[in-house]
Design goal:
Elements (H helix, E strand, L loop, with lengths): L3 H8 L13 H21 L1 E6 L4 H6 L3 E3 L1 H10 L4 E5 L2 H10 L4 E3 L15 H10 L4 E5 L4 H5 L3 E3 L4 H7 L4 E5 L2 H14 L4 E4 L12 H10 L4 E4 L5 H5 L3 E2 L2 H10 L4 E5 L2 H10 L4 E3 L13 H9 L11 H25 L1
Parallel strand pairs: 1-2, 1-3, 3-4, 5-6, 5-7, 7-8, 9-10, 9-11, 11-12
Helix pairs in contact: 1-2, 2-14, 4-5, 5-15
The structure holds 1,3-dihydroxyacetonephosphate and iron/sulfur cluster (SF4).
Length: about 350
């Protein structure tokens, strides 16, 4: 049973640049009835709640069974014995869970669960690109629809994109839809001495494209010992000016083991909230940005889909598309496991 005191204990250090993400004992007390109702109905429905680190902290610390990045959550979705998966994130993540679990019910509680990257490219566009680039291996970021994944050879996430592209036995790669991540991929391959022709599509994440290297320069002047920790959806100039680049879970793990005391975190505010809650001894400077799609998840939305989901809250996929999309996700798991085994 969650109490106002136990919830406040977890959330008291969360203070990002918005009223949405600061907590008092009174605010926690107001959330507790909803949290306990969700946790009760989860048991009766044999449901599990997966939450991306970007959603509101009361979801992460009040009701989520698993929290993480897109790779970790895909693995969690694959391993669950629950009948119902509630995916507090965005639609493409719910689709990935459904691709992996066709017989389970997958529910999406966000009221606007889009993603500017997943919306940037359609399956038809990939089919046309494959005609124009017949010799290229098509690598799609996980932030894509099932229809797009079905047209690609391998899916990747921000945690494994470099190792997978390096390992693909083809020196011609078409990477989509994130142009900025694609440019960072080109730079990383050059740094590793890997020669590949990497074509990139023209999508961007509207949250990460906003960061400017000038902000890093300014923060370094003010806090000379700051460590800059960045998501690879940011532009190449931002990435080059950073100290560490990785997926949201890799960013969390990096801060945990770093000896630095002060950090600039260049990604969505939810990750800063998690760091403040879980690593209260550290100092987080600068401001973060919010993803309106991730932040369209709420406790109310989760309770609503568990009690009475509307047709649009349920993920359904054409079986032919699902089976083809599954191949690109399974290829990702194979490449990632091989890379981990290589490292020992
Ligand atoms: P991660 O897989 O690193 O959590 O990234 C997902 C995402 O949507 C980042 O904007
Ligand atoms: Fe999509 Fe960007 Fe939001 Fe991540 S932060 S879900 S990439 S719009």
């Amino acid at each position: 049973m969650v109490t106002a005191e136990s919830l406040f204990e977890k959330l008291r250090d969360v203070k990002v640049n918005s009223n949405l993400c600061t907590y008092s004992l009174e605010k926690c007390a107001a959330m507790v009835p909803l949290i306990n109702a969700i946790n009760e109905i989860k048991k009766t429905r044999n449901a599990v709640i997966l939450a991306h680190s970007y959603v509101a902290p009361e979801i992460v610390y009040g009701v989520a069974d698993f929290t993480g990045d897109s790779y970790g959550l895909s693995k969690d979705a694959m391993g669950t014995q629950a009948d119902t998966i509630v995916f507090a994130a965005v639609r493409f993540m719910g689709e990935t869970a459904k691709i992996l679990n066709p017989t389970k019910e997958v529910l999406i509680p966000g009221t606007d669960p889009a993603c500017s990257l997943a919306d940037a490219v359609t399956g038809d566009q990939v089919r046309e690109l494959r005609r124009r680039f017949p010799d290229h291996a098509f690598v799609c970021y996980i932030n894509t629809t099932a229809d797009v994944k079905a047209e690609c050879d391998v899916c990747v996430t921000s945690s494994n994109v470099n190792d997978i592209v390096e390992a693909i036995p083809n020196d011609k790669i078409y990477f989509l839809p994130d142009r900025l991540m694609g440019l960072n991929l080109r730079d990383e391959m050059a740094r590793r001495g890997v020669k590949k022709d990497i074509q990139v599509f023209d999508g961007t994440c509207y949250v990460h494209e906003q960061y400017d290297p000038e902000v890093i320069r300014h923060i370094r002047l003010k806090f000379p010992k700051v460590e800059v920790v960045t998501h690879p959806e940011c532009g190449p100039e931002v990435v080059k000016a950073s100290d560490f680049v990785g997926s949201t879970s890799q960013m969390l793990a990096h801060v945990a083991k770093s000896k630095s005391e002060t950090f600039l975190i260049l990604t969505e505010c939810g990750l800063v909230s998690r760091l403040q809650a879980e690593q209260p001894g550290k100092n987080f400077v600068g401001s973060c940005t919010m993803c309106r799609y991730m932040k369209s998840n709420s406790l109310e939305g989760i309770l609503r889909v568990l009690i009475k989901p509307r047709p649009e809250d349920k993920v359904t996929l054409d079986e032919g598309i699902r089976v083809r999309a599954l191949k690109s996700i399974e290829a990702m798991f194979r490449y990632t496991e091989a890379a981990v085994a290589r490292r020992g």
